[in-house]
């Protein structure tokens, strides 16, 4: 089970180390800014900068694990609306020096069903007690598999003063974002004048991961429209040519009592067979290439049969309309006229 973090109206403001003695004042001014709903701090800039990795050996299955670590304050769990897979028995212990939180992926990698309460060692340091399991969440592209993650709760300002990190600010809805960002820049220049004011919105950066796919989808939509239009022109030309070639046959059939409906059916069925054969071939090719493309994503949807059924139905309807118009015109033509022309 995995979740997507809350990203709407949240701006990330990275800051470098060097805020010694001013970090708490900086944070307080941001929190007291009018128009800000929530704020949190992390040691990393989500969707942009990487996290620290400790290579640890599981004491339960001897497996070597690349355990990514993220240092955050308690407010970030609420800001991102992270969900617990296994809640701590004592929430007052969150943030204690000897405690740590794992995600579900890390729990699976360590190979112990009841890992809460057990100790794990990071980088040869003192053992950290696992006090809870958070549901897996995406903090990278969806193309990447969610890695094993350890979250350490840090409330001590000196940690972020020394290592740096990022503020996450959630605006109240319907705010003038331009004015809000200008005020945040003023606060930043006050406490960190040597560093340029940088920021990014989480939803925009996350969306940039898939801009290529969105553009590809739009291009394919345009080319598909052109392809259908050209195919309809081809069908219309083919049915026009066919009806002209068989006009004498149509005239004779009508003289012998054939109805207009039977003549329309006569012409339509031949083309329907060709369209159905082309749909089968096109669907097989489309499924293969879509399946290959989806393999680039660790988290992907399945290709449902009804997608091809619906597409085939729409193509068939368009083809029938194209063929039917000319067929009806031919079927309603005066048989005497067609026989005289012949």
Question: Keywords for this structure?
Answer:
seven-stranded mixed β-sheet; alpha+beta
Walkthrough of the structure:
This protein is of the alpha+beta class and 342 residues long. Helix 7 packs parallel to helix 10 (305-331) and helix 9 (260-294) packs antiparallel against helix 10. The N and C termini lie far apart (72 Å). It contains 11 helices and 13 strands. The protein is elongated and about 100 Å long. It has helices spanning 23-31, 74-79, 104-110, 157-163, 177-191, 202-208, 211-245, 247-255, 260-294, 305-331, 335-341, and strands at residues 2-4, 10-15, 36-42, 52-57, 64-72, 84-86, 99-103, 119-121, 127-134, 136-138, 149-153, 165-171, 200-201.
| Average pLDDT level | 82
Q: Total strand count, please?
A: 13
- Kindly report how far apart the N and C termini lie: 72 Å
The biggest beta sheet is recorded as: 7 strands, mixed
Uncertain ranges: none
Q: Structural class of the helices, strands and pairings?
A: alpha+beta
Radius of gyration using CA atoms only: 32 Å
- Provide the β-strand percentage band: 15-25%
Shape verdict: elongated
Structure annotation, total helices: 11
Helix content: 40-55%
N-to-C series of helices and strands: EEHEEEHEEHEEEEHEHEHHHHHH
């Amino acid at each position: 089970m995995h979740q997507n973090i809350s990203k709407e109206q949240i701006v990330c403001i990275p800051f470098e180390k060097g805020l010694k003695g001013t970090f708490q004042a900086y944070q307080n001014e941001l929190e007291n800014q009018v128009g800000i709903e929530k704020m949190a701090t992390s040691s990393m800039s989500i969707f942009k900068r990487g996290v620290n990795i400790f290579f640890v050996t599981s004491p339960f299955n001897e497996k070597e694990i690349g355990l990514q670590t993220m240092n955050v304050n308690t407010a970030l769990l609420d800001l991102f609306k992270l969900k617990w897979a296994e809640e701590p028995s004592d929430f007052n212990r969150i943030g204690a020096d000897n405690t740590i939180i794992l995600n579900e992926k890390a729990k699976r990698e360590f190979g112990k069903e009841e890992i809460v309460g057990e100790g794990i060692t990071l980088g040869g340091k003192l053992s950290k007690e696992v006090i809870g399991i958070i549901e897996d969440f995406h903090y990278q592209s969806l193309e990447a598999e969610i890695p094993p993650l350890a979250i350490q709760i840090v409330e001590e300002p000196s940690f972020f003063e020394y290592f740096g990190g990022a503020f996450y600010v959630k605006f109240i809805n319907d705010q003038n974002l331009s004015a809000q960002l200008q005020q945040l820049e003023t606060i930043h220049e006050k406490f960190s004048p040597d560093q340029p004011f940088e920021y990014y919105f989480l939803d925009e950066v996350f969306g940039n991961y898939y801009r290529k796919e969105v553009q590809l989808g739009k291009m394919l939509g345009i080319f598909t429209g052109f392809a259908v239009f050209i195919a309809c022109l081809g069908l219309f030309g083919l049915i026009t040519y066919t009806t002209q070639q068989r006009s004498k046959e149509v005239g004779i059939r009508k003289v012998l009592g054939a109805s207009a409906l039977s003549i329309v059916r006569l012409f339509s069925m031949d083309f329907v067979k060709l369209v159905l054969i082309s749909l089968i071939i096109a669907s097989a090719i489309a499924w293969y290439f879509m399946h290959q493309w989806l393999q680039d994503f660790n988290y992907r949807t399945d290709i449902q049969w009804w997608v091809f059924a619906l597409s085939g139905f729409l193509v068939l309807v368009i083809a029938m309309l194209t063929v039917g118009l000319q067929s009806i015109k031919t079927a309603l033509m005066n048989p005497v006229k067609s026989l005289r022309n012949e």
